[in-house]
Amino acid sequence: MPRIWMVVLGFVLSGLIGLSAYFLPLFQTAATATAGPGALPNLNPVQAPSQPFTVLLLGSDDDSKFEPGQLNTQSMILVRVDPTTKQSTMLSIPRDLWVQLPAHGMGKISWAYRYGGEQGAIDAVQSTFKVHIDDYVWIGLNGLVRLIDKLGGVNLQVTNPVMDDYYPADLNAGEDPYGYYRVAVLPGATHMDGVHALQYVRSRHGDVRGDFARSERQQQLLLAIKAQASHVNVADLPSVASAFNGEIKTSMGLDRMRAMLSIVQRSQRAPRRPRPAVHL
């Protein structure tokens, strides 16, 4: 049994226009993933995928401002894994991208999930980018906080200060979910728990590069999670899995996840490109 199972954590990425990303840390502990309607149990051995496959990663602010089933996606990431080349690439989709929403006219691509759930988000991405999506994974922000805390926090090297006077108070129990408070992260090496790590990657005010700078911080956090997760052993998996507590949904059955495991473990980061050639 591999030391680390897989469950998608890429929901923390948004706004980045470009490819060349790292897919391996995006799966941790599929044990509590809730299979969607299209994921039927299969107890027979499953052949590992031999063709490239894509997974749409969705992340929502599942906080007290929204009703269940009426969430926008704050993060949308399209991940492609090529079993032949052992490489993975990722396209993070700006949440404010104005597109044609199937059956709903023009609107922000982040609205697609609110209108049509997972399938609505899939349809919007497929029609906009002319790609085929094999599976999806959705996770709420509380899931990220809980996972990082279960891992004992993460170590980060902050290169640029973060000063956000309008950080939403929506995840703070007892506070106005529509309120704000100040978040300040100073440069230097630091150890962050789940709440502070979320603040670091979610803040987008007070930075002239906006979502682009936030995307860089989010990629940095993914690598930090990967490093921390490398210390997790089999005995820790039930505790780590329980951290999600309903904060994750996926169309992938456990059998397919296991079949993909060996490919994803061998997957390499795609060659880094100086600047993305795609402009949206």
What do these coordinates show?
The protein is α/β, with parallel strands linked by helices. It has one domain: LCP protein (Aminopeptidase, 3-Layer(aba) Sandwich). It has 6 helices and 13 strands. It has helices spanning 112-129, 141-150, 194-202, 211-229, 237-242, 254-266; strands at residues 34-35, 53-60, 73-82, 87-93, 98-101, 105-108, 135-140, 154-158, 162-168, 180-185, 188-192, 248-250, 268-269. It has a 7-stranded mixed beta sheet, with helices on both faces. It has a two-stranded antiparallel sheet with strand order 5-6. A two-stranded antiparallel ribbon has the order 8-11.
Structure summarized in a few sentences:
With 280 residues, this protein is of the alpha/beta class. The protein is built from six helices and 13 strands.
Radius of gyration: 18 Å
* Biggest sheet descriptor: 7 strands, mixed
Helicity level: 25-40%
Whole-number count of domains: 1
Q: What would the CATH topology be?
A: Aminopeptidase
Q: Identify the strand order in the major beta sheet.
A: 1-12-7-2-3-4-13
Roughly how many Å apart are the termini?
A: 42 Å
Contiguous uncertain segments of 5+ residues: 1-45, 268-280
Structural class: alpha/beta
Index terms:
280 residues; alpha/beta; Aminopeptidase; seven-stranded mixed beta sheet; two-stranded antiparallel ribbon; 6 helices; 27% helix; disordered N terminus
Write the layout of secondary structure elements.
Blueprint: E1 34-35, E2 53-60, E3 73-82, E4 87-93, E5 98-101, E6 105-108, H1 112-129, E7 135-140, H2 141-150, E8 154-158, E9 162-168, E10 180-185, E11 188-192, H3 194-202, H4 211-229, H5 237-242, E12 248-250, H6 254-266, E13 268-269
Parallel strand pairs: 1-12, 2-7, 4-13
Antiparallel strand pairs: 2-3, 3-4, 5-6, 7-12, 8-11, 9-10
Helix pairs in contact: 2-3, 3-4
